[in-house]
What we know:
Elements: E1 10-12, H1 21-27, H2 39-53, E2 60-65, H3 68-79, E3 85-90, H4 93-104, E4 108-113, H5 122-131, E5 137-143, E6 145-146, E7 151-152, H6 155-164, E8 170-174, E9 193-197, E10 208-213, H7 215-223, H8 233-240, H9 251-267, H10 269-290, E11 294-295, E12 307-311, H11 318-329, E13 331-335, E14 344-348, H12 355-371, H13 380-407
Parallel strand pairs: 1-13, 3-4, 3-5, 5-8, 8-9
Antiparallel strand pairs: 2-10, 6-7, 9-10, 11-12, 12-14, 13-14
Helix pairs in contact: 1-9, 2-9, 5-6, 9-10, 10-12, 10-13, 11-12, 12-13
Bound molecules: pyridoxal-5'-phosphate (PLP).
Amino acid sequence: MSRTHPGRFHIAIPGPTNIPERILNAMHISSEDQRNPEIPNLTIPLYKDVKKVFKSEKGSVFLFPGSGTGAWESAIINTMSPNEKVLIYRYGQFSHLWADMFKRLGLDAEVVEREWGTGTPPEEVEKTLKNDTDHKIKVVCVTQNETATGVTSNVEDVRKAMDAANHPALLFVDGVSSIASIDFRMDEWKVDCAISGSQKGFMLPSGMAIMCVSPKALEAHKKAELKRCYYSWEDQIATNKDGYFPYTPQIPMLRALQESCNMIFEEGLENVFKRHHRIAEGVRKAILEGWQLKLCAKDPYWYSDTVSAIVVPEDKDAKQVLSTAFNKYHLSLGAGLTEVAGKVFRIGHLGDLNELQASAFINGAEMAMIDSGINVKPGSGIAAASEYWRKALENDAKVQSISNKEVA
Length: 408
Ligand SMILES: *Cc1c(COP(=O)(O)O)cnc(C)c1O
């Protein structure tokens, strides 16, 4: 971004998210020899810390140069054989692309259409798996947070449904826009491949595929017959155990990821989730109570704590809101993708963010909407959000001081 305007350009998209100064500083290093004997001092503790973010003790972490999409591919080619069956629900651009990838890689994807604004329905998963008596379905996929529509699916409920059906399928979860922002429990929910990327909750630039895989997925890997090379797990397993990589790693990104984990643990992982929920609730107050507009997410069960997709009135164009916000107010809002293009715009509220930054998003979106002829009351968004945040922060501060006293 050329600096033709003073002050901060606000990024209110659901990734890439803001990169904190500490992470920028951690990346700002000269080249290091990737085979030097000190590299394991960086990588071995890093794997442990990344596993903590996934809430996994049993899992194995893989870090590939790539992005979330690369981690999708790695999960598929390392665990599956040609024409094997996968169950996936399609309810937004990201679940769509993932389903499409299964097909393009030669798998038999049973893609179930769901209304955009909803997510993976646990009760239907249970029914489908119970009917699959000869266990043709090898993988069940959940996009934990559908970034296109601002919908969070309940992975725990899906796991319960799989257990209720007593079905042995692997569980794959796309957590690209949820892991490190919304609660995720790899081991407890028996997730087999958890997929993430660097530029969302982890607050890094894009460029790294971050994934955690279960022992069961590693077993499946031994029998998987899809062709693979660069994204293969075996070469990683062979070198990662000593703290190295099969090919040149992005050392500045590894150092940045370590700093990201440090920041997450200093705040406390649960506090990170609470902060995301609190900021999201305030944004939702602005949308629903202040502006009296609708979310794309159909009901509170699906509300996402990392991104909100706002439906503009039918005779208005969300693209105009986006361009006005960008050009006039120096604010990037998220666009509506494919089926909801022009119908929604998105506010991403994840990563390195606090209430006052989110206030700027609300104010910028509100001004851009009014400029675009959308009938919202000036100041109504921030009035609703700030009323909520004042009280929520006060309650959180009380809880904090009580727990501090208990410690003292
Ligand atoms: C961003 C995103 C992706 C794609 O990740 P890239 O890093 O752009 O490859 C996949 N799934 C979800 C849910 C996302 O939000």
